[in-house]
Design a protein that fits this description.
about 190 residues
């Protein structure tokens, strides 16, 4: 921990708040601002060192609420996903792709999305949550196109030509896959 960061009475090393731990870091350099971010399964809240314990508790609550609101905007639920699919189908496929269901799933770890044309169902991997919107839109549009054309032949790719960020989204996803295969940085034993 940097020299000017001091653990907070609330944090100990961290305290549990439901699914994620909270670490409060006090800084003598920080004068008025409070900020927070997610670091893996932990939430880090940065506060001024002079803040009282009562102010700290209040600000931790405020920042947790703020992060949750930001994440809910970035991570649409199933109903928002279905609305998004309808919008994408109308915009890029002439409204011809009409899925019966569109939902997030947690059991797809080797695919970004899947489609069962006979049932009209589309499933997107939970791993897409929090990725840029254009990437989620591309995967959703990809699965919508499968409702119209099975396989990945020329007719299928012609449907996706209308989406201007197809190549960019594919490159992003390829980068995510490649990064997952890379070894982490060597552990030099200190920092």
């Amino acid at each position: 921990m940097p020299a000017d960061h001091h653990p907070s009475p609330l944090s100990g090393p961290s305290r549990d708040a439901g699914a994620s731990a909270i670490e409060v870091r006090r800084s003598s350099r920080r004068r008025r601002t409070v900020s927070a971010y997610r670091e893996g399964d932990r939430t880090v809240v940065l506060i001024p060192a002079r803040m009282s314990e009562a102010e700290e508790r209040r600000w931790v609550g405020v920042m947790l609420d703020k992060l949750a609101a930001q994440e809910s905007r970035r991570r649409p639920g199933d109903s928002e996903l279905a609305e998004r699919a309808a919008r994408l189908s109308a915009q890029y496929l002439g409204g011809r792709a009409r899925p019966a269901t569109v939902r997030w799933v947690t059991n797809q770890n080797t695919r970004w999305g899947s489609c069962t044309p006979a049932e009209g169902s589309i499933r997107l991997s939970h791993r897409l949550r929090g990725m840029p919107e254009y990437v989620v839109d591309y995967v959703l549009l990809h699965e919508l196109a499968h409702l119209l054309v099975p396989g990945h032949g020329p007719d299928f790719w012609r449907l996706l030509e209308a989406y201007p960020r197809t190549e960019r989204a594919r490159g992003f996803l390829e980068g995510v896959v490649a990064a997952g295969r890379l070894p982490g940085p060597p552990d030099d034993g200190g920092e």
